[in-house]
């Protein structure tokens, strides 16, 4: 039964879609076989077992895996090592089963059973990519992305790299907004296919339970949407009496609604790879094939998952760094605007038209110290509006731990407030003592290009009497005009506003505390009085405040551990002045203590420091490179948390050290990945902060190449400072140089 009446649509149980138990479908895709093993006995199998392995279902149930797969294959399963989730590449192995070559993946179900999934190994080149080269190709794309100049370039590399690796007709990179709506931000496709780049897709395309699965199972292949499924026999797990949880299964059968969705798009095969940030889904790489069934091998899928994870991390780190740089530019400009206003009303000093341009706002208001000032477009009764917004969370997105809030539709947040003028959006920044900084944006009628009308979804009533939405019937570009809202506030907008908040708080402090040298004194007191000089080694360092003597959050540190090894640390806390110097001092002391407590183990120390930063310094972002040098061997074990890589220099040749880039401090999730390098006799390692190379009039890539070329001429730190940082710099700069003895 199909319902077309709009009144009936209002009665649809939308929760029915999100309640569908897609993790327990009771079936798998037919490209492979599934065995459920409990207490070393096969308790369930997919009913295609006779077709693919020539073993009857009845002959497999109740028997050990060896009776189904053969002794050699069963011994290679290592079921005791299987676990729930994790990278596909960690679970896949090639085994010989009944004379044939198979790729086998093992997982743990939520009930403790082992899932054994086997797929025939395709002939070399059958899926377009020899398995022996797929990881090399993936690493090649990652190297390209490491040199990318923007997040958008990383997106493009992801789409192109995944398409070359997998052979799909179309590969798209989706980015989700805070409401889980998606937009195609990069695309690689066959030339004859209609482009989807730039199209938007509603959050309902991926219901909540599907998003949860994507956050657990990072890659998902549907090899043929037209193929029947293979049911599990028996349907229920004998021990639990319930359907077996196939959350981590690579063969898990697909929801009928999603299959119809793909059919409506003309897609015969698809693959999805999750893009995650600290375990949360921020985007997805979607692969579509229209020419027919398509089955990249397990090895290709594992390499693609590795590639996507690396690209996701690089995109997240690059975006965070770009946002931090933008916030620093805003803060630097505001300092210039208010640099000569240490007296007089602070509100009037900040409320200037130039700040509107920087913050991409139409109006702003600052209320501080009993006075208020506004510039640009603000609501007629701006003080009352801001007060009301601080008292309600309705219609707001709380963007950070300070209570900063964004509103895209003020009429929704304040339905009974009356005249808001032309203002539709607001970004409200709480300040100490009940004061407020607020930005405003005017209403903008926006045209949004959807991949099909998001409301054009048929509704059917099942045998249970519940009405359910089906997938929309067309995916042709559909334009929607959105009114009553402002341009949405981006993460960059929020972080820039937070930078203004930090600066206003700093200015308040400066006006109420005459000791203007407090931050500089604190910063200098954090630098080591002496640097260790192991036998034959040379360790040197240099720090310079920004223009005007302003200090930031840069620091260097080096000290000898009980083992005789030498700690080497360079870090940078975002921001300037006393807040940054105070945060820097705490992080510096924490890193010292934790390196000592962990006997020089860098990764555990940095993991512990990240936990402390999240608890004691919420909202603070810092990058850090930390290493421990063994002077006897020249080996340096190191970890990089969002920091620029160091240079290795010898005999007039400079190269970038290879590092594994983790997220900055305050954003890590678990233990960071580390690396190891070895300094040969006569080699030097130069650590530095971005203040040495960052300039608004040149790209970071250009400046880094300038630094590399300069170090091939000289390693004199004073000369490097003058050549790179110049006489006037918006940021402080730090360098730490370690040189091995020439043996």
Overview of the molecule:
The protein is of the alpha+beta class. The protein has three domains: 27-320, GAF domain (Beta-Lactamase); 339-445 and 485-512, 2-Layer Sandwich (Beta-Lactamase), CATH 3.30.450; 525-739, 4-Layer Sandwich (Phosphatase 2c, domain 1), CATH 3.60.40.10. It has 21 helices and 35 strands. The strands form seven sheets. The chain has a seven-stranded antiparallel sheet with strand order 2-12-4-3-7-6-5. A six-stranded antiparallel sheet has the order 10-9-8-14-13-11. A six-stranded antiparallel sheet has the order 16-15-20-19-18-17, with helices on both faces. The protein starts with a strand and ends with a strand.
What topology does this entry show?
Blueprint: E1 2-3, H1 6-9, H2 15-18, E2 27-29, E3 33-38, E4 41-46, H3 49-53, H4 57-60, H5 65-69, H6 71-75, E5 92-97, E6 100-108, E7 114-120, H7 134-146, H8 151-166, E8 170-176, E9 182-189, E10 200-201, H9 208-216, E11 219-222, E12 229-233, H10 256-265, E13 269-277, E14 280-289, H11 298-338, H12 346-350, H13 353-359, E15 363-368, E16 371-376, H14 382-390, E17 397-398, E18 405-407, H15 410-413, E19 423-430, E20 436-442, E21 446-451, E22 459-461, E23 467-469, E24 477-482, H16 491-512, H17 518-526, E25 538-544, E26 552-560, E27 566-576, H18 577-597, H19 602-616, E28 622-630, E29 635-641, E30 647-650, E31 653-656, E32 661-662, E33 674-678, E34 684-688, H20 700-711, H21 717-725, E35 733-739
Parallel strand pairs: 29-32
Antiparallel strand pairs: 1-22, 2-12, 3-4, 3-7, 4-12, 5-6, 6-7, 8-9, 8-14, 9-10, 11-13, 13-14, 15-16, 15-20, 17-18, 18-19, 19-20, 21-24, 22-23, 25-35, 26-27, 27-28, 28-29, 29-33, 30-31, 30-34, 34-35
Helix pairs in contact: 7-8, 7-11, 8-11, 11-13, 11-16, 17-18, 18-19
């Amino acid at each position: 039964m199909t319902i077309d009446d709009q009144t009936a649509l209002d009665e649809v149980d939308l929760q029915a879609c999100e309640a569908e138990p897609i993790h327990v479908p009771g079936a798998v895709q037919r490209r492979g076989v599934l065995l459920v093993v409990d207490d070393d006995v096969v308790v369930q199998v997919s009913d295609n077992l006779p077709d693919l392995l020539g073993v009857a279902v009845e002959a497999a149930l109740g028997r050990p895996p060896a009776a189904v797969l053969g002794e050699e294959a069963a011994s290679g399963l290592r079921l005791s090592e299987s676990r729930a989730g994790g990278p596909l590449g960690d679970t896949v192995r090639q085994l010989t089963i009944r004379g044939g070559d198979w790729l086998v993946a093992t997982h743990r179900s939520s009930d403790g059973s082992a899932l054994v999934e086997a797929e025939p190994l395709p002939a070399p080149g059958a899926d377009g990519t020899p398995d022996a080269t797929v990881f090399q190709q993936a690493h090649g794309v990652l190297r390209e992305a490491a040199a990318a100049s923007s997040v958008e370039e990383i997106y493009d590399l992801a789409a192109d790299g995944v398409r070359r690796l997998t052979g799909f007709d179309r590969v798209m990179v989706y980015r989700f907004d805070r409401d889980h709506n998606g937009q195609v931000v990069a695309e690689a496709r066959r030339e004859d296919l209609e482009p989807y780049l730039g199209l938007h897709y509603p959050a309902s395309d991926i219901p909540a339970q599907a998003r949860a699965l994507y956050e657990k199972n990072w890659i998902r292949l549907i090899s043929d949407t037209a193929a029947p499924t293979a049911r599990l026999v028996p349907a229920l797990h004998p021990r639990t009496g319930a359907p077996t949880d196939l959350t981590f299964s690579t063969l898990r059968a697909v929801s009928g609604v999603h299959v119809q969705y793909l059919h409506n798009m003309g897609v015969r095969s698809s693959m999805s790879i999750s893009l995650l940030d600290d375990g949360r889904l921020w985007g997805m790489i979607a692969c579509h094939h229209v020419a027919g069934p398509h089955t990249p091998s397990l090895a290709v899928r594992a390499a693609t998952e590795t590639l996507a994870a690396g690209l996701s991390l690089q995109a997240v780190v690059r975006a965070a760094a770009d946002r931090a740089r933008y916030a620093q530019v805003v803060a630097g400009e505001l300092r210039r605007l208010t640099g000569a206003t240490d007296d007089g009303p602070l509100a009037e000093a900040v409320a200037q038209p130039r700040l509107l341009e920087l913050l991409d706002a139409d109006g702003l208001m600052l209320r501080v110290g009993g006075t208020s000032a506004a510039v640009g477009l603000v609501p007629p009764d701006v003080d009352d509006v801001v007060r009301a917004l601080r008292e309600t969370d309705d219609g707001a997105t709380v963007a950070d731990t300070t209570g900063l809030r964004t509103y895209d539709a003020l009429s929704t947040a304040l339905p009974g407030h009356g005249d808001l003028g032309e203002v539709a959006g607001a970004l409200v920044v709480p300040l100490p003592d009940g004061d407020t900084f607020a930005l405003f944006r005017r209403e903008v009628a926006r045209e949004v290009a959807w991949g099909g009308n998001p409301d054009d979804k048929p509704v059917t009533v099942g045998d249970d009497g519940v009405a359910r939405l089906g997938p929309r019937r067309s995916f042709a570009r559909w334009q929607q005009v959105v009114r009553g809202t402002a341009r949405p506030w981006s993460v960059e907008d929020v972080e820039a506003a937070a930078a203004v908040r930090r600066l206003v708080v700093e200015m308040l402090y400066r006006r109420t505390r005459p000791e203007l040298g407090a931050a500089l004194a604190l910063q200098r007191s954090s630098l080591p009085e002496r640097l260790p000089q192991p036998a034959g080694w040379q360790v040197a360092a240099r720090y310079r405040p920004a223009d005007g003597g302003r200090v930031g959050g840069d620091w260097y540190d080096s000290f000898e551990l009980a083992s005789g090894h030498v700690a080497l640390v360079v870090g940078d806390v975002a921001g300037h002045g006393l807040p940054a110097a105070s945060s820097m001092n705490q992080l510096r002391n924490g890193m010292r203590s934790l390196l000592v407590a962990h006997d020089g183990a860098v990764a555990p120390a940095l993991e512990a420091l990240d936990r402390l930063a999240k608890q004691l310094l919420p909202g603070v972002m810092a990058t850090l490179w930390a290493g421990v040098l063994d002077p006897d061997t020249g080996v340096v074990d190191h970890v990089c948390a969002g920091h620029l890589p160091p240079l290795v220099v010898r005999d007039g040749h400079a190269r970038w050290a290879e590092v594994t880039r983790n997220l900055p401090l305050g954003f890590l999730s678990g233990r960071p990945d580390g690396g190891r390098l070895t300094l040969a006799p006569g080699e030097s390692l130069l650590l530095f902060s971005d203040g040495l190379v960052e300039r608004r009039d040149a790209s970071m890539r250009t400046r880094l190449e300038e630094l590399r070329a300069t170090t091939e001429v000289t390693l004199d730190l004073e000369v490097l400072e003058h050549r790179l940082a110049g006489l006037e710099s918006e940021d402080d700069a730090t360098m730490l140089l370690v040189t091995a003895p020439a043996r």
